[in-house]
Amino acid sequence: MPSSTLSVTVSLRTGDAVPVTVADIEVQLLRTVRYGYRRGNLYGAVQGAWEQETTEMDRSLLPGPLLVSPGEESRLETSVTLPADAAGSAEGTLIQVRWSVRTRLHCPGLPDVTTDTALPVRPASGHCAADAAAPARSDGRDDAALTFTRLSGRTVVPGSDLSGTLRIVALRPLSVREYRVELLLREHVDHGPGHLADAPDRSPGLDDRSAETVVGTFTRPGGALASREELDLPFSLRVPEVLPAPSLRFAQLRLVWELRAVLDLPLRSDPAIMLPVYVPTADGPSPGQDSSCGPSLGPGA
Questions:
Q1: Which end of the chain has fewer CB within 10 Å, C or N?
Q2: pTM above 0.90, yes or no
């Protein structure tokens, strides 16, 4: 996928009764990643911690000088480039990816004027598309074998309906309290800052962290299943119009969407099947949408 050019309009106006001179205008495209992990201390305890990293992805400079007169508005056009492999915006429980355009005005004799404008970004086309072909994982195979069939699709779009059939084969007599199918986001942070993923002395059990968020659920009352009995359970659930994040993988961070089916059994581990699905976008404007920044000029602004 080629890089995307983002058009930026900078609007200048002053609330003072005197003209203001702008030496130059700096426009930055920033990506801020915030994530949670676990951190140990000298006493052997492990506690939650957070890390935030802001990276400049591109920059544009509008040279001056430019005189802004009272009561007038000046508009300047520039652009910044979104990388072809840009990670999309995400608002997960453990992982947040936020993009913004920062405009900084340098005015002689006055403090710099800075404005940040949030910018929703979709991930690069095809990023994590392989999730739609990844194999399912199963738990509790001693009690039941679970399979998804006749799925409406494994590419999930916000605001759509996700339907299919859950095939259940009981491997022993079962008393099921509830059948449940869920669409969920699974987040995983491999390690905290300052670690190498392949470092021989790194203990994944010390600093990794996981979380899951269920965004859609289908339930049906359970019942008795005889040994070797087969049951086909049709299901349908509505995908929310806005999701916390698209499918993403970068650095030590993973946001993976799954379709999970669970048999709720009393006093036993619940048999479950987890099938990865692909969410190309969490909804929102495309990367090519204009970003407009309009700071006010004046002393102490």
A1: N
A2: no
